[in-house]
Design goal:
By secondary structure, the chain is of the alpha/beta class. Helices cover 28% and strands 27% of the residues. It has three domains: 2-112, Rossmann fold; 142-318 and 333-356, Rossmann fold (3-Layer(aba) Sandwich), CATH 3.40.50; 360-458, ANL, C-terminal domain (GMP Synthetase, Chain A, domain 3, 2-Layer Sandwich). The protein has a six-stranded mixed β-sheet, sandwiched between helices. Helix 6 (137-151) packs across helix 7 (168-181) and helix 9 crosses helix 10 (245-255).
Length: 459
Amino acid sequence: MGHLLAARGLRPGDRVSILSDNCAELVVLFLGALCFRAVVNPLNVEVSLKNLDQIVHDVEPRLLFWNRLAPSEVAALVERTETEAIDFAPGTEDLFARLEAFAAAPVPGRRVEPDAIGVINYTSGTTATPKGVCISHAAFWLMCDGMADRLGLTEADRMLDYRALSWASPQVMSFGPTLLAGAGYVLAPHFSHHRFFGWIRDHEVTVSIGVPTVLNMLIDRPLPVRASDVPTLRFMTSSSAPLAVERQREFEHRYGIPVVQMCGMTEAGVMGGNPWGAPREGSIGPPLKHIEARFVDAAGNRCETGQEGELFVSGPSLASAYLIGRGRMEPISREGFPTGDIGYRDADGYLYLTGRKKDLIIRGGVNIAPLEITTVLLSHPAVAEAATIGVPDPIYGEAIVSFVTLRAGHAPAEAELHEHCRSGLSDFKRPVRIVVLDALPRNDRGKLAGDRLRALAIG
């Protein structure tokens, strides 16, 4: 792969964009570009479509690899761009036949500078324009090392993931950690409800990535599977969005498979994760290796144990900068990066998140955490999923609106849900409206699409 890039005139530090769904070719391109000392820029071909032109313009790649099976908009983008492009079709000899023409030995003189940028990952951009997060070779390695350490991965493990490898989360939660540990990596093109446990059984998977959307789907559309049917599986993870404690308990009771919650972000990798042998309900676990975490109050002071504040993280595994436009970089502080998460730390160092700073509902000058209301709604036996937001209110500043999806066979009236909230919330925190939806709007990473919820509430 390095020889192919050199033959195209690329030098260390040049950028290589990749537009592809999960496949073996994407893995080879990603690792090959890193080993060459190029900057690899994987792009999601579905979620990023509306922003692809701007992203490619800002990144200025010297070379663009693209999957011919991608949506037609990708082919149109390739035609518009002046960047040299190489197309391939997964499962054919397209890319591998090209590589066979080059020597298998490494390209000489390609020593990696640890602080040089190795990866540019874009955020999901659910409520704003996506930002390019620039991660150094060293930081990327440390992100993966911290996760391999927390999971306790060894050469005997096999890890399953089905999320798009173009996102940062699978890169540093499963892909990189398995390589560092010498473990096996099982990468599916996408999640499949009916094939999921078959993959685990057939490939003797020991650790499977999970997201709340998938866990909720397996609860609401249960399969006749127990832990004894997948004996190699040690546990599943849950990240990318909050998983209600009640739903975690329900999953573990139904399937007998432990779930450990974790939390991360593109700029910092996985920040906290429960040790699989000592998880705590409702917690995202202690900070990972290479991460220092602290909660800070409104005055900027470090919070005491149990005191709520905003989570700040620091350490060598944080990203270096944002790419905010063509040739424009905005440094990211490694000494104290504000995550926007609100929560607290217990006496043993476990982190608990209670909401997002930007999601706080300020009603009559009082801060209200949407998660508190959502948790009460989820305790109703008919509610499968829930979300809560604030909308403009002429008197109090913001009013509370909640959204729920219902379990099969349940159809409670809105009045019943309001009565349930009355029993668990003060009057000031109760939602003024509870909207029943067939499904909560989410992106492919399982995160709620806040802009779409607000449009539904206002509309």
